[in-house]
Model the fold of this input.
Amino acid sequence: MLSVPHLPKGSFAHSVWLHLVLPRAAVLAALWAMNQSLQLPIWLVYPAAVLDAGFLVWQLWRYHQAAEAHIRDTGAMAPSWGGYLLCLLALLSSATLWWDTVLIANMPPPEEQHSEQMRRAREALYQLTLSADGRTVQFEGEITYGLKARLAQIVENAPDLRVIHLGSPGGHVFEARGAAQVIMGAGLETTVSEACSSACTLLFMAGTRRHLDPQARLGFHGYGLSEWVHLPGYDIDAAQEKDRVFFLAQGMQPGFAARIFDRPPEEMWYPDHAELRAAGVLTSP
Done:
């Protein structure tokens, strides 16, 4: 802690320490600490800098008066000029730190990492909402990367979860497979109120019990790659066969399973409820 050395009260040295060194050292220390941890709004920086500049001018004026009196009384100029050098140092240090404060205040907020930007962009493509009683979760939107992880987190934090309501035009098959495993592992029932198509059918078939509302539809079609996706080693037939095996394991009849990928990627097959029930796709009316 800074304190005034044992100097004769009222002496020139005592005045320098009391009115210049200690107050200015405290201000500089506070500025330095603030610049290390805070980003003040620019509207606050300028008034604060003006106030400190006024305080510094007052300090320099007080020192000048004390120095003039010391020279007049003793004729010794060396201590006074040493003090003026100290004033110059205080002025430069204050200006430097305040300039740093202005630069920090004008800095843009740190850029979000690209991975975080992509995560938020993907999450904006769908909604995953847990009911107030924690027994149902609603999924609406596109199946995209990150769905499996978010769904797994909800399942972990909602021990009473029993049902997932689905509404999706489809999306990424790989992510759908992962989400389907989460649904199976949690033993959830699956229901659809409107439409569940393409990769969404993987999520639907993962349910222990599967239900469609009267107006709801399930849509099946063959797999394909978007025109901007180039995966030379990707075997579409093998991918379809892998998911056909999954459907069969979940109770789908072989004759129906043999037809689900017959439509081209740009078309959709919507079997009626009676056909779905006969094929083992629906387990409840």
Observations:
- The chain is about 55% helix and 10% strand.
- Residues 54 and 81 are 23 Å apart (CA to CA).
